[in-house]
Amino acid sequence: MRRTLPFTSGARGVKARISLAMSVAMFWALAACSGEEMSKSSPQTPQAEQADQQDPIWQQVPFSALPGWQSDDLSGALRAFQKSCAVILKKSPSAPLDRKTGAAIPYGVAQDWQPLCRQVLSVKATNSALRAFIEASFTPLLITDRKRPQGLFTGYYEPEINASRTRSAQYATPFLAKPSDLLTLNLEQFDPSLKGKTIRGRVESGRFIPYHERAEIDAGALNAQPLVLAWAKDPIDVFFAHIQGSARLKLDDGSVTRMAFAGKNGRPYRAIGRDLVARGAIPQDQVSMQSIRTWLAQNPGSRDEILHLNPSYIFFREVAIKDDDLGPPGAANIPLTPYRSLAVDRAVHPLGALMWLDSREPGQNGAPESLPFQHLMVAQDTGSAIKGNVRGDIFFGSGAGAGASAGHMAMPGQLYTLVPKHLVPHP
Q1: Which regions of 116-186 does DSSP assign to beta strands (E)?
Q2: Which terminus of the chain is less hemmed in, N or C, by CB atoms within 10 Å?
Q3: Would you tell me how many other CB atoms lie within 10 Å of the CB of residue 183?
Q4: Inter-residue contact 38 to 385 (CB < 8 Å)
Q5: Who's near 70: CB < 8 A, 6+ residues apart?
Q6: In this predicted model, what pLDDT tens digit does every residue of 225-260 receive, in sequence order?
């Protein structure tokens, strides 16, 4: 929910290039925005894919070099980091923070973080106390790569969808649970060089083959009835719930429940915005989640053809809503915190990492006047299209307002990661 322009570093100099950045980013977008895919629907050029293969470059910097560091209300990130710390404290001391993350950045292992996590669980929730604790305990590292000093930051959200437990002419598009024949293979078990790599498929006649594509599932390839969790009114709503990786369902009996990510079919994600631009359906500088939804609604005869261009399919699990202010569980199985949870590339950054993001966010309803987005974030999610050293997807929250922000978010920016002080030699 984006990335190859030579933006100047830091927030300064960004504003003059926002319009160009948005145009290029939106050309490759499906929309703008851990669940699974839209962390998930990031636009990515072939050049960006190649750049993403470069090892990250990190540079130690002082906290005074973080744009906006003194202005952020850090207590807003405290609850998110405390939730990640609760997970870190349960790990074996010698365990990595994330088994999928490489060693290019000195993130250390769990025991490097556990003493700090014990402290953060008891730190006073005041801005000054948290800032003093972080400055005393962590070292900021500016993250870049060899081709792009800046990266791309997009947004995602949890949509609210009208649904029913009972199928009818009005409610006919299912949310499906993960099928029992969908298997995931950890390739590291076969070859250590494939650490963190997995493939998904099914067994047929003794052979492991790719799982059914979206079009095949929609056409009845599965025995879907036992898998149905709920039925939705609008297939476009369900498609975008797949992209976001979650949904909050407003059931026709008056109750509310949540669909959270449970698995995917393993087919590659394809951003249908590219196809709509290529067909001349939407101008490249107008591609957003909102414009794609509008086109699909206005062209029902072509809707399914376009949706089936994306072979990826997401399966869900039902999760009770315990805290209305928090979002669905991310990849770390921690409820996401609006404006503080960040989806990252787990090959580069581990879940649980503390990060500083210097970017911008669009004005209300996609207005051209952008605003600074300079916040303390926590890596708590990932997604199929979130690839790269300086790449992130911001969780904006639940509902239409969050969707309006996430749908227009595609901004250049700079990423800093904060690591325990003893992991980096100090001059």
Answers
A1: 138-144, 151-158, 160-164, 173-176, 183-186
A2: C
A3: 14
A4: yes
A5: none
A6: 899 999 999 999 999 999 988 999 999 999 999 999
By DSSP bridging, strand 57-60 and strand 138-144 are: antiparallel
More confident residue, 113 or 385: 113
CA distances in angstroms from 63 to 36, 82, 103, 118, 353, listed in the order given: 32, 21, 23, 23, 17
Quick one: which of 309, 329, 313 has its CA closest to 248? Answer: 329
Helix (H/G/I), strand (E/B), else coil: 309? coil
pLDDT digit string, tens, across residues 392-408: 999 999 998 898 888 88
Q: Is the dihedral of CA 111, 114, 116, 119 positive or negative?
A: negative
Q: Which of 146, 150, 143 is nearest to 17 (CA)?
A: 150
Q: What is the 3-state secondary structure (H, E, C) of 180-214?
A: CCCEEEEHHHCCHHHCCCEEEEEEECCEEEECCCH
The dihedral through the CA atoms of 315, 318, 324, 326 has a sign that is negative
> Among candidates 367, 387, 412, 290, which has minimal Cα distance to 21?
412
**The dihedral sign for the CA sequence 225, 229, 235, 236:** negative
Specify the CATH class of 15-423 in words.
mainly beta
- β pairing state of 341-343 and 391-398: antiparallel
Tokens (6 digits) for 43: 């636009």
Per-residue model confidence (pLDDT) at position 104: 93
Tokens of 216: 């095949």
Nearest alpha-carbon partner for 343 in 310, 392, 293 = 392
Is 53 a residue whose pLDDT tops 60? no
DSSP result, 262-304:
EEE--PPP--HHHHHHHTTSS-GGG-SHHHHHHHHHH-HHHHH
